[in-house]
Amino acid sequence: MDDPACDPAALDRTYRYFRPINAVVSGWRRVYVRHLRPHLSVHEPTTLLDIGSGGGDVPRALARWAARDGLRLAVTAVDPDERAHRYVTAQPATPGVEFRQASSGDLVRDGETFDLVTSNHLLHHLDPDTLASLLAHSAVLARRLVVHADIERGRLAYAAYAAATWPLARRSFVYDDGLASVRRSYRPHELAAVVPPGWDVRTQLPYRLLLVRDVTDATAREEARHA
Ligand SMILES: C[S@@+](CC[C@H](N)C(=O)[O-])C[C@H]1O[C@@H](n2cnc3c(N)ncnc32)[C@H](O)[C@@H]1O
């Protein structure tokens, strides 16, 4: 799906399939309950930026959960890929979610900030320099907390994903690209070895990594700004 010349119908189906796949494998409900919901309020609006939103299902789910809990959350979801932007803006709108075609670097250049910053399945896509930039961007963009969620590489994760998505292999990129993602993803100690100080690697069952940074400390934000 990273190939700009890939089949657009298969790409659209891939974005569509991300929703049930993320619902089963990504554990975002737990991330929302444990890490994000404690920052939300009935009275004060909280802003959240989702970086690399792809098919948009994770930011839409976060906005729906907050609304169901009666909490005020304004979600901005960005992805520079014009095909992703075309897909998400062709879907029915979700109240509380704004999709923008932009990269994390664009937002830093514009001086924007958000209370909370998240991403899903982004870290393993990035080479070391781009990962360093993304982490610096997210620490500058966040006023309170960053949570980057990704796959934890593992044989069982690979086998289970292969078995579950094999039926979709011919109609989308979910099978081949998903397995490549599992192969490229980190084990906890590998991720801990490549991130700068201040980032905390946590695991979540099954086979999930969370890279978390609390930026409420002014020193942490200042360090990130100069990283
Ligand atoms: C594998 S997709 C993940 C999509 C979605 N988060 C999900 O879980 O289904 C990664 C996305 O990140 C986007 N991306 C990569 N670097 C980015 C950056 N610096 N800022 C915003 N988006 C970025 C890519 O265009 C791609 O669509």
TrEMBL record:
GO molecular function: methyltransferase activity
Record key words, sorted: Methyltransferase, Transferase
Nucleotide-binding among keywords: no
Annotated InterPro entries: Methyltransf_25, SAM-dependent_MTases_sf
Any one Pfam family match given in the protein's UniProt record, by short name: Methyltransf_25
Any single GO BP term: methylation
Protein name: Methyltransferase domain-containing protein
Originating organism: Sanguibacter suaedae
